[in-house]
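User: I want to check something. If I give you two sequences, will you return the structure for each one separately, not as a complex?

Assistant: Yes, each is folded on its own. Here is the first sequence with its structure:
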Amino acid sequence: MGINKKGKRKICVENKEYVWYVNEDYDSPYYVLNILSEDKSLIVSCPLKTETAYLICKGIVFQNQKTSGVWNRYLLPFIIPEIITPVFVAGIITWATKGANATLVEWNGRDIPV
């Protein structure tokens, strides 16, 4: 099944198509940047304007490794800009696909401990 692209932006990174969009998270006070690969192997969400910058991996591949499919949270090694741009989105995609040694953090239900 394909991805609904209505209201979403497309980006091509290393000859692979991705869709990204920002929406309000209904379970928290944050807006969230969502990025999905066309084949849905990479699915990540990045809460915006949080105290600690982190990314939630929801897909089956992260940093070129298969995942268990359980949502995992990783500290971002860079700062989230005030305005989300395609350059920033491409940077997250590159880090999430080609990067290594991401720092896994446990979520305690309230915040992300550093």
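And separately, the second sequence with its own structure:
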Amino acid sequence: MAQVKVPTVGESITEVTIANWLKKDGDVVKMDEVIAELESDKATFELTAPQAGTLKIVKQAGETAAIGELICEVVEGGAVSSKKEEPKKDEPKKEESKPAAKSEAKATGGVKEMKVPAVGESITEVTISTWLKKDGDMVALDEIIAEVESDKATFELPAEANGILRIVAKEKETLPIGGLICRIEITEGGAATSKPKTEAPEEEAKSTDKSYAAGHPSPAAGKILDEKGIKSSEVSGSGVGGRITKEDAEKAQAKSKAEPAKAAASSTPPVISSGGTRDKRSEKMTSLRKTIAKRLVSVKNETAMLTTFNEVDMKPLMDLRSKYKDKFKEKYGVGLGFMSFFTKAVCIALKEWPAVNAQINGDEIIYHSYCDVSIAVSTPKGLVVPVIRNAESLTFDQIEAEVVRLATRGRDGKLSIDEMQGGTFSITNGGVFGSMMSTPILNPPQSAILGMHNIVERPVVKDGQIVIRPIMYLALSYDHRIVDGRESVSFLVRVKELLEDPSRLILGV
């Protein structure tokens, strides 16, 4: 048997979240087959089976596990079927055995109450996220019947007996530890079936009138009633055993609308009337989003962050780009954007002002002779900052190709840990979303980040004349513990000079 533990996945990462199991508990897996996806605060990566065998899951999807913690086991050999197949017999005998098994199925009279289990330290309540089985369904021992959600993880709820499910707690209902979730009317001898219809129809109706179904809505009816804010106790059911059907719910909906209409006709019209909705929805934060929030707050609390601003006349750069962008793409197969110019300008300025490219490590300052530039990329899961390695030694086309590659992998969720860590300076471009001005937050342990913004034509004075030029505001946020005002301002002025005279970038002057 091989124990699979959370591997060391990168610098400063202490825990991961089980994003998704690609194999189910009890499945047969092959050696090196991908069995799960793990998610850290920096990237999502795949987990492979160390040997062939049967998978035994320890940590469920959504749970968080520390580095080195056991998440599953792979037992040697094939999966053991939960149902032992009987030796094959003649077909007539096999057909005869089916009705016999059904006829022998019967209720034992026992009832198993399922309560909220203790699911972890400091967790005092859970929410019924989803019922995978309906009220009245037949369930088997250890069959997953619901998904239960706490403030830390989502886990599955298995049936504790064979029998008929009687749901007590509805979806989205919150229960304390030990609270009653459901009951299982225990049966034996196979699948439970309804009682033989030996009674007269009238007698059957009388017996079902007092059953659990009386006053209970069907799933479709319950959804309609919840949306309209109508209690099930206010609706009479016309279904079997007094169950509230979808038609009953729709009629109740029409009734609830008609009564206010009559009242409105005999009273003064409301001051405000609107046909809009006031719906709300809640969504659990992903592990990546929670980590981003935690890191951003820590940056504000643990650094002496300050921001300085300047403006850049983008006309020379835009003219140069317009003149050569077609030939550039024809030769290198990649578009000529602004990011390569900004990256080259930043690298030159970082060489001249090394404190901006440094970082604090305890009581020491670490200076870097290279420029690993992190670029902020917005993805469906949140903000990620992949790194362009040794950007100071790359050409314009190499920078553009690397930006496209990293941005594409980031949006596809395929960035590796190595591609996410180790940057020495960051660039973020809020201008693509229309931002005029912002104060970007540091990407620790880096000491500075440059914020780009949108380009807007503004009146400026050139050689004593008021002219209209395309202007971009630049913002440099920096850690004042390591970068002084003189260094930060001089760094930004140097970037401005290089961008307003692009020939300097070619000559390095």
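Because they were folded independently, the notes below concern the second chain alone. The chain has ten helices and 27 strands. Confidence is low (pLDDT under 50) at residues 79-103, 191-210, 254-258.
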